[in-house]
């Protein structure tokens, strides 16, 4: 038995969906612990693309228990749409496989309105959010005025909390953001209806996860977004509003840190980012455009084109440290095939000062120029390779160099979107070393 946390080590979109989907096969319980429907996990099953925003991708495996923990913020409309879409594909026949924490906070219609209106403020600082109301929902949680899933199940409590919130929200919407206010009756009636439909899934999930751990089950904690989007450790303020690092798996699901066995980090073989903010190794040129096309780098949630750049070892080293990552997965190595030369960012030059660690100051980071190491590329197509030893020499050199720079073992290499396009060097749910395929 093992409790394994999976987190992204860049700015999200590292290809976590596919890896989590593979690891879910060996897990009994899969837990989402932070973020909301700003995330989008794309999984390809039998050549069909499935995009999940809230429900753990483990749901695509029959008989697995999937939990949305207290650290997640839930838009109940989108949650129900996702449940319906899974049901229409016959992926959720047994409702008891899905459990939602009583303590998860609700994304309300005014959160979305505030998120979008703030981004449109002419004199505001644009973050490039997904517009899903995530930031305003977490603000209310920390401000102690948020509405939880359990509140939705009690009409009186919900009525009181909604009424209290609307006074403030409507004032802010109308007088500051110059938007239309929202109607109490409309939200109340809609949300009470949604609550009735969601009720059967709501539970004390902390109790259930702890019971599962006690009973020797394999638990997979599925992170969303990436470490550099973490509200404490990321490129603040160009971050999301939750903690995306491994420690949040405990807080966002109600378990103690002594219950965790392994932390696995996912890194794309190059770097991407959506939204605003500094990106030292960005390729603002034809090569960046070509990586975007070859890697199909368009947001799973918003469809926005992702900014692309070289692998940044300095940044991933920071992510490894803040999450205590013990094994790394490299995804999308196949996308780099056909390049003459490949670069790895190994540090930064900020106005003549050298940085070998990720700087804390955004101003410094914005002024940083990447320092690169250059390696020879490879021309071979990697999609059908299933053994490490069969990778082209230069692809192996690239992987070995990353491993050395990061001083962290690479345990899985992903070479395409399909489940089978993967090389497993070490399986996190077992202790044995293997070189096999999915
Ligand atoms: P928010 O989470 O919608 O508030 O957006 C804040 C920042 O996080 C923006 O730059 C978004 O593009 C980014 N972001 C949020 N979720 C994801 C994700 O799942 N993948 C990549 N970027 C994300």
Please give a structural write-up.
This protein is an alpha/beta fold and 438 residues long. The chain has 2 domains: 3-86 and 205-424, Adenylosuccinate Synthetase, subunit A, domain 3 (Adenylosuccinate Synthetase, Chain A, domain 3, Alpha-Beta Complex); 105-200, Orthogonal Bundle (Adenylosuccinate Synthetase, subunit A, domain 2), CATH 1.10.300. The protein is built from 13 helices and 21 strands. It has helices at 16-24, 76-88, 109-120, 134-142, 149-152, 155-176, 184-198, 205-214, 248-251, 286-294, 313-323, 362-367, 393-406, and strands at residues 3-8, 29-32, 41-45, 48-52, 65-68, 73-74, 98-101, 105-106, 202-203, 219-226, 262-268, 271-273, 307-309, 311-312, 327-331, 341-350, 353-355, 368-376, 409-414, 422-426, 433-436. Strands 9-7-5-2-10-1-11-15-19-20-21 form an 11-stranded mixed beta sheet, sandwiched between helices. Strands 14, 16, 17 and 18 form a 4-stranded mixed beta sheet that branches. The longest helix is centred in the middle third of the chain and has 22 residues, at 155-176. The two termini are 20 Å apart. Mean pLDDT is 94; it is low at 432-438. Residues 11-13, 38-40, 127-130, 132, 134-135, 224-225, 229, 238, 240-241, 274-275 line the site of inosinic acid.
């Amino acid at each position: 038995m093992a409790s394994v946390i999976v987190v992204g080590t860049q700015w999200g979109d590292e290809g976590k969906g596919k890896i989590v989907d593979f690891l879910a096969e060996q897990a009994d319980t899969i837990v989402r612990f932070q973020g909301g429907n700003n995330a989008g996990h794309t999984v390809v099953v039998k050549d069909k693309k499935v995009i999940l925003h809230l429900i753990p991708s483990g749901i695509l495996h029959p008989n697995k228990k999937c939990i949305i923990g207290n650290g997640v913020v839930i838009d109940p409309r989108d949650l129900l749409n996702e449940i319906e879409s899974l049901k229409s594909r016959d992926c959720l026949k047994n409702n008891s496989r899905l459990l939602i924490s009583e303590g998860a906070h609700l994304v309300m219609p005014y959160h979305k309105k505030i998120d979008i209106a703030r981004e449109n403020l002419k004199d505001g600082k644009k973050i490039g959010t997904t517009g899903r109301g995530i930031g305003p929902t977490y603000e209310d949680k920390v401000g102690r005025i948020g509405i939880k899933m359990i509140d939705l199940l009690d009409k009186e409590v919900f009525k009181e909390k909604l009424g209290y919130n609307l006074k403030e929200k409507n004032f802010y919407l109308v007088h500051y953001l110059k938007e239309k206010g929202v109607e109490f009756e409309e939200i109340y009636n809609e949300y009470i209806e949604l609550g009735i439909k969601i009720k059967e899934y709501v539970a004390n999930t902390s109790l259930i996860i702890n019971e599962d751990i006690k009973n020797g089950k394999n638990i997979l904690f599925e992170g969303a977004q990436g470490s550099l989007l973490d509200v404490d450790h990321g490129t603040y303020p160009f971050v999301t509003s939750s903690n995306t690092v491994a420690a949040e798996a405990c807080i966002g699901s109600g378990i103690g840190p002594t219950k965790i066995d392994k932390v696995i980090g996912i890194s794309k073989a190059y770097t991407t980012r959506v939204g605003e903010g500094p990106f030292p190794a960005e390729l603002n040129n034809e090569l960046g455009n070509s990586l975007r096309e070859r890697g199909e780098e368009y947001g799973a949630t918003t469809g926005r084109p992702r900014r692309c750049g070289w692998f940044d070892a300095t940044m991933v080293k920071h992510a490894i440290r803040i999450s205590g990552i013990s094994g790394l997965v490299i995804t999308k190595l196949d996308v780099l095939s056909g390049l003459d030369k490949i670069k790895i960012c190994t540090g930064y030059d900020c106005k003549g000062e050298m940085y070998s660690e990720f700087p804390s100051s955004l101003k410094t980071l914005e002024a940083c120029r990447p320092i690169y190491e250059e390696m020879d590329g490879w021309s071979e197509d990697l999609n059908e390779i299933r053994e490490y030893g069969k990778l082209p020499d230069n692809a192996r050199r690239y992987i070995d160099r990353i491993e050395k720079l990061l001083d962290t073992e690479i345990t899985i290499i992903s070479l395409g979107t399909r489940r089978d396009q993967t090389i497993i060097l070490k399986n996190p749910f077992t202790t044995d070393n293997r070189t096999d395929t999915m």
